[in-house]
């Protein structure tokens, strides 16, 4: 059974690892912003860029699923 679903397990593991990486990057950025006394506009800009990166990753996954399913 494992050999039959190896590719799916690998894809899920990679996606979860990247999601965890985004969370860790977010925590690191939050710590740097707090310690650096960054103005509110700068904080909004940093979080916007981080959100767009996450949104792009999610959009890529959705597009990939749709493309591979043939819809």
Automatic annotation (TrEMBL):
One matching Pfam family: DUF2788
Protein name: DUF2788 domain-containing protein
Keywords: Membrane, Transmembrane, Transmembrane helix
Transmembrane spans: 12-33, 45-67
Top-level lineage group: Bacteria
